[in-house]
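> @MW can you paste both from yesterday?
MW: sure, first one:
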Amino acid sequence: MEKAITVKSLALSNIRKKPYRTTALTILVALASGVLFGTLLLTASIKGGLSGIKNRIGADLMIVPEGYEAQAESVLLSGEPNYFYMDRSIEETVRGIQGVGEVSSQFYLTSLSESCCDFPIQIIGFDPETDFIVKSWASKKVKGSDDDELILAGSSITTEKDSVRFFEHTHKVSARLAKSGTGMDNAIYTDISNLEQIFEDAKAKGFGFISDGNAKSKTSVIFVKLAQGVKPDSAAARIKGAVSGIQVIQSDKFVSSLMDSISSFLIFLHAVSVIVVLITVLTLSIVFNLSINERLREFSILRVLGADFKKLRSIVFAEAGLIGSLAAVLGIFLSTLILLPFNVLISEKLNMPFVLSGAGPLALFALVTFAVLVGACLVASVSGAVKVSKHEVYQGIK
């Protein structure tokens, strides 16, 4: 029994007859698909990282030693190990300033490469009693005590049997912190008393610090949450007037400045995507037109056999749609294959806040990419379909 000749079967037959052309077009569309999908995913992940750093900071103001603003930002953004100190008494001074609500400090200690990691990481000491930042990001409720050490591991820290090892001493991890897409995912947080022990272990191993850099008399960063209705500018001015040798960083301005610097990169990504899609449409349009010129006799014969102009146009659109569908899926698959397994490496190379989007956004980006690329292929085939409609039948079979 002979199979009925349909628009789809004719389109598939024509695609199979031109394997080299079909392969070239598929690669072109797949490239555009991969670039567009990758742009959507990277943009959403970077914006998610920005949101994460704003939420994770959890303070209106950050106070660091004067001249160490860049180092503090590198710790927050990329988790680059660093240490800098100021007198711990500043914390009490800031606590007494008008408009200040809550105050909590952190002490930065940089580790050697130990068994938990292949690279140095940041160990951060904090006071569980005054903390309003770290514990809220723990995966389970955290209760510190004088007897038990408190160790909170960032989401990117690799642990063995829920333990980490520093300077030949093993420490039990109390909880893991939720992913934020910031440098804080690469840090270990511990209470001050335990940090002092780690500090002593480090000194016993000959690890060097700047003069008097110890957790008893020094601190690295002071986080300030303002009372309701207090303006950050006014509070920052009062703090700088009361304490010398410090730099006050406003969290909102820090995030806004970061967003401004990242915006140019995001604009570049979107521009590349638009250019690639436009080049794809233009190239496909040229190729489809050349293909139609080669197949005018074929379309004329189909017209003589009873196919109307609508069916001939449908064949052209079906070919474009099939190539676009296959290539779009292929591009999305390959882009996913690159971005998902290597998202940590990509975030490190970008040196930007980065939180990989979840399954829902990924599915949405895939659908948008698929629709755009299939639509681009159909648009590119319009001129060819119009040419088929205007072609004189008998002229094509002379």
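MW: second:
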Amino acid sequence: MLQKQTLEDLTNPTLKKHTANCVVMVPPKEFGFNPETAKDNEFQQGTTLDIPQLQQRVMEEFDSMVMQLRSAGIQVVVLDYSRGELPTPDAVFPNNWFSTTPQGELYIFPMACENRRREVRVSELRETLEMSGRHVDAVYSFEDHVAREAYLESTGVMIFDHINDTVYAALSQRCDRDVLEQFAQQAGYSRVVSFQTVLPSGKPIYHTNVMLAIGERFCVICDEIIPQYERTFVLKSLAKDKQIISISLEQMNAMCGNVLQLESVNGEKVIAMSQTAYNTFTQAQLNQLASHGRLLPLDVTTIETVGGGSVRCMLGEVFLPARSKYL
């Protein structure tokens, strides 16, 4: 039985907090291979499963993930939705369209693919968060940048070092430098570290969060895809107060960079990752990670293979203040 813990850290907006103890997850009710995102997401793969088989398998993975996170003491807010006329095959990855702050701010972001913009359900999200005990004071939208084809896909492309007020971001079609700088300034981040990436195909990485994860005192990074002239600067910046865990290109392709440090309601650090990533880390790397929190491998094999995103992509962190001192 988890003990009730005070949430003064969430009701004090001046306190810098890196790890969230609450996440939003969206069920994969219309999940499928998305040809629009596949144009620059090299992680997506086709499937031989028919639609009913695919739906059953991804819902089982989703439900199991929700259960395991809750068992680990993480508050999971499930944002359900009614199906529209057109499907939202990537709705299971909500971290690409919103983010939250301890000041009660909800930010909404412009996404590059048209069929992903149908996932944005601001009123439903706000209502669900309020019902779960989290308070939204203000909503800010950057969606008007879509008109000029400038995109910023939230924590898919921006990796926050909350403690140091720094945003790390790999520039790409889905991460526009101007919108990035504008958001950082408005949200109060004092520093932006943006950089290029190059995959073996010659293309940039589609989302930063598949090659970089930042915890309170560690980071996981596939630095080999950053050009040398920028790599040294990025690593030096991270190394100031983080243990650097460098992963190979092969490990990145197995979603080892798509991990997220969370916090239980009792203050225990938890590092969520896919079972695929867990199986691909070396034992030495797992030992390093385990020194920063309990490792929580989650089997989302079908979702990450067909959808091209993994555990971190499925989690929208909630830093909003709680209406009550206790969960």
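> thanks! The longest strand covers residues 269-274.
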